[in-house]
From TrEMBL:
The lineage of its organism: Bacteria, Pseudomonadati, Pseudomonadota, Gammaproteobacteria, Pseudomonadales. GO terms for molecular function: ligase activity. The keyword Nucleotide-binding applies. This is Glutamate--cysteine ligase. Pathway: Sulfur metabolism; glutathione biosynthesis; glutathione from L-cysteine and L-glutamate: step 1/2.
Length: 517
């Protein structure tokens, strides 16, 4: 364990400092495709009973119209976060009738590209801008990519903890701390892919006949034998334009500057497409990124935005408030896609990233971090897999064992603060996966596919039906059902009120939005 980590753990263990670790905040965003009873992508509009995808705070859509997104509030106790996520799932299950929420991250049988619906948000300029942005994503990455789902884990440490560690004013200390956390996350996030990756196989319809290095498991299923997360591989949400963006988070200012440049730098292939054709908008602009959130990263520094404020403006004005972990697959065996043990381990992992030495990423370390990550998502369970650490080869399991030893110290301190052993027990279950690779979700999924003789789409549909049944059997109370119904109705009224307001020319609205950075 490093000297700095030891010092910081000792400091946080002193007196009143220990209580700071009970003030972490947790939020979860879970995406999930709506599918019909046969597991095919739903062609229906966002269900009105769920409210407005534009104005509902907890139930919205992401890229495809069929891709639901559930958003919790933040809670100090992540168990309360998961309780809230369960309530959102239960309400949605009660309203989907003949449709289901797809259990894994990768979609099942997809229709032709043209038949995948893009999310719509109504006729207000705000709603139209969200639609055109997604139309741009379809042009740039394909609609197929807009059917991939994941889980985002939002995490913050209390401002007083950052001030204690860095001796700076609150905003400055928080930004320094979170950017350091992110650097270490980039160094070590391959471990999360080994432990929690759950997409080693996919439906062949996702590939659209493109060349790839996958193997056939059956007539409908492609896979890689040692893969952990094909979702996070080069088969997922990547493109040539984004591959040129490599912000390494050595400071908040450099991160903001790199994304500001990307949203203002023309990209010739996108210029060839243009922004409009026959009066229809194709994309918001022809730059490397339409907006800053188009940059697909495994973790983001975040700040809650004010009305009309863009994410980079919020970061520049008030610093980093929390981090959003974006690389987590949905665990298809869990109704919520994530459970309490995983959340407690994530807390210990993120605390380890926060307290450990985090020098600037220089030289070849940035590409080495990316190479390690990609090796693990495609080969992570391969015996003897070697990664790169400080220019030297190291066995994945050896390095993982060292990391878990350090994370164990953070887990123990979290348990001391909470007066129980929840984090230590969560870490022990991850050590089990390191000792026995068959316990990882990716290995379990491939074993079940092989042993059952089912295709990926068949097994996923079976799990989706099981989760729907479990959610419906644990129905919401009448009061909770009424509360969600009222939220849905209010969101519809809010959208109607927004659309009733005079709307300026949409081209002018887009131009003003673009100029706001």
């Amino acid at each position: 364990m490093s000297t700095l980590l030891s010092r910081r753990l000792a400091l946080l263990g002193q007196g009143d400092h220990l209580s700071l670790l009970t003030q972490c905040l947790h939020g979860i965003e879970r995406e999930g495709l709506r599918v019909d009873a046969q597991g095919q992508l739903a062609q229906t509009a966002h269900p009105r009973a769920l409210g407005s995808a534009l104005t509902h705070a907890q139930i919205t859509t992401d890229y495809s119209e069929a891709l639901l997104e559930f958003i919790t509030a933040t809670h100090r106790d992540v168990a309360h976060t998961l309780d809230e996520l369960r309530d959102i799932h239960a309400f949605t299950a009660s309203q989907l009738h003949d449709e289901l929420l797809w259990s894994p991250s990768m979609p099942g049988l997809l229709p032709d590209e043209a038949q995948i619906p893009i999310a719509r948000y109504g006729q207000s300029n705000q709603g139209r801008l969200k639609y055109v942005y997604r139309q741009g994503l379809a042009v740039r990455y394909s609609k197929t990519m807009q059917c991939i789902a994941g889980i985002h884990y939002n995490f913050s440490l209390p401002p007083a903890l950052w001030t204690l560690l860095y001796g700076e004013q609150e905003a400055a200390a928080g930004s320094l701390g979170y950017i350091a956390l992110i650097r270490n996350f980039r160094r070590y996030s391959w471990l999360l892919m080994y432990l929690f990756g759950a997409s080693p196989a996919l439906d062949k319809s996702f590939l659209r006949g493109a060349a790839n290095d996958l193997q056939s498991l059956d007539a409908d299923t492609a896979y890689l034998p040692w893969a952990t997360s094909l979702r996070m591989s080069d088969l997922g949400y990547q493109n040539n334009a984004q591959s040129s963006l490599t912000p390494c988070y050595n400071s908040l200012d450099s991160y903001i500057a790199s994304l500001r440049q990307a949203v203002s730098t023309p990209y010739p292939p996108y210029e060839a497409i243009g922004t409009q054709r026959d009066g229809e908008w194709l994309q918001l602009n022809t730059n490397l990124l339409q907006i800053e959130n188009e940059y697909y990263s495994s973790i983001r520094p975040k700040r809650v935005t004010l009305p009309g404020e863009r994410p980079l403006q919020a970061l520049a004005a008030r610093g980093v408030q929390y981090v959003e972990v974006r690389c987590l697959d949905i665990n298809p065996y869990l109704p919520l896609g994530i459970d309490l043990a995983q959340a407690h381990f994530l807390d210990a992992f993120l605390l380890y990233c926060s307290l450990s030495d985090s020098p600037a990423l220089t030289g070849n370390e940035c590409p080495a971090c990316q190479d390690n990550f990609q090796r693990v998502v495609k080969q992570g369970r391969q015996p003897g897999l070697q990664l790169q650490r400080q220019g030297q080869a190291i066995d994945l399991r050896s390095w993982a064992g060292e990391l878990l030893d350090g994370i164990a110290e953070c887990a123990a301190l979290l348990d001391q603060a909470h007066g129980d052993d929840r984090h230590t027990r969560a870490l022990a279950s991850q050590r089990d996966k390191l000792a026995d690779v068959s316990l990882t979700p990716s290995a379990r999924l491939l074993d079940d596919l092989r042993n059952s003789g089912q295709s990926f789409r068949e097994l996923a549909l079976q799990l989706s039906r099981q989760h729907r049944q479990a959610l419906r059997e644990n129905a919401l109370s009448a009061d909770a059902q009424a509360r969600f119904t009222a939220l849905a109705e209010q969101s519809l009224a809010d959208q109607a009120a927004l659309e009733a307001q005079p709307q300026e020319d949409f081209a002018a609205y887009v131009a003003a939005f673009q100029a706001s950075l």
